[in-house]
Amino acid sequence: MAQEYPEDEFDAIAASRKVHGTHRPQRSNTRWWIALVAILIAAPLAGWGIIQLISADRPAREATTTATASDATETTDGGGTTGEGPAESTEPVETGPELPAVDLDSSVLVLNGASIRGFAASNQELLVAEGFTDVEVDNYDGTTPEVSTVFYAAESDEGTAASVATTLGIPEDNVILAPSATGDYQIVVVLRADLS
User: Do the domain assignments include residue 87?
Assistant: First the structure.
């Protein structure tokens, strides 16, 4: 038989409690939700910021290349014709600056960024048929550039880069001097679906 003890102060405290036993009120999940929202917002913003830093100088280079190309077009097209026949002029006709010579031994890397199987290899064959001797291929998973582009490492490679672009059908506006984008190669080609 159980023995009964007189009530003491501990029994009074236990009787006044609303929750009995091991049950406790649930904690709020507010902190967890705040952390989740912060991660979902901060991570994409950080990634976007890094991409902007990496490609910050690219639009300026493209604008300079486009302006140079349009200046050269105006110079060569402004020969003084009126539609009635050739104009007589004693002034020499200015031509655009001559591109440096094409070096077929330049190191060229063709990157397949179009997700088309064998796309880089087929373009490699076009370059080899044109006479280029050092052409390698690889896959590319970057997001920039959005269109097929030829990057070259130094001004002395400009003629070679232009020849590569012409061979592959890439517009000359997409031939860019970008030493930071070429790595150990003189010419780097990023192929996109616009060329397929």
Answer: no
Q: What CATH code is carried by the domain that includes residue 111? A: 3.30.70.2390
Domain for residue 153, yes or no?
yes
CA dihedral 172, 143, 119, 151 (to 10 degrees): 30
In the chain, how many domains are there? 1
Q: What would the pLDDT profile of 4-44 be if each residue is shown by its tens digit?
A: 878 888 777 777 776 655 556 666 788 888 888 888 888 88
pTM check: above 0.85: no
> Phi/psi class of residue 3: alpha, beta or left (left: φ > 0; alpha: ψ in -120 to 50)?
beta
Q: Show the domain range for 125.
A: 100-196
In a domain, 5, yes or no: no
Q: Cα–Cα distance between 152 and 160 in angstroms, integer?
A: 9
Residue 4 burial (C-beta neighbours within 10 Å; 0-12, 13-18, 19+) = exposed
Distance in Å from the first CA to the final CA of the chain: 93
For the packed helices 158-168 and 119-130, what is the interaxial angle rounded to 10 degrees? 120
User: 152: helix, coil or strand?
Assistant: strand
